[in-house]
Amino acid sequence: MTEAKKNRILRKIEKLKKVLRDEKTKYGAIHDGRGIRYSIAELYFELKDYKKTNRYLNWFNKNFPDDGKYSYYQLGEAVTKFELGKLKESKKSTINLNKHNTYLIDLMIGNDIVDQNKYEWIESENLEWAQVNVNDHLKLITENYLDWLNNFRNEESFQKWYKKLIAIKKLLKGLDVSEERSKLLKASRKCIKEWKKDA
Known about the structure:
There is one protein chain. With 199 residues, the protein is mostly helical. It is 72% helix and 0% strand. It is built from 10 helices and no strands. The chain has helices spanning 3-27, 36-47, 50-63, 71-83, 87-100, 104-109, 127-138, 143-153, 156-172, 179-198.
């Protein structure tokens, strides 16, 4: 990346941060209905200055602890933490990718993939979406992270929890709103939570 492009990104980040500061000054809190906080994160990911990115992610998590995230964000966070040697945190963010799409990791490392015939709540959880969007995700990663990801994916613990998550999602497919469906959705969330603890 050229210095000129880097400076353009930094200026845009500062401009967006000012919008958030002004909102807090005016209303006493940041509402950010336009999702500016996510746009800033994506600009930092593009910048690949992992120390600055990490500072921003820490601020984000402190100020928006319950915010939903998405696969691109989770991967950017995972790479950032990895590049700073924060492997435990990187593992958690990498595991969180599977909440949003269970195909992306295998696509990134070049594994053969078939449709898992499971419950998928929104389009961004399916195989076709992953195949269309994997190249955008690959732009976030480094060669070292990709090597690490391949090893992490092959760990026995990863395979155990991944298979458990897929099994739960298969049971969910086709179920109408019911007590059984609610229990399985709760089980899928618990699976991710326990997987991160085990990592």
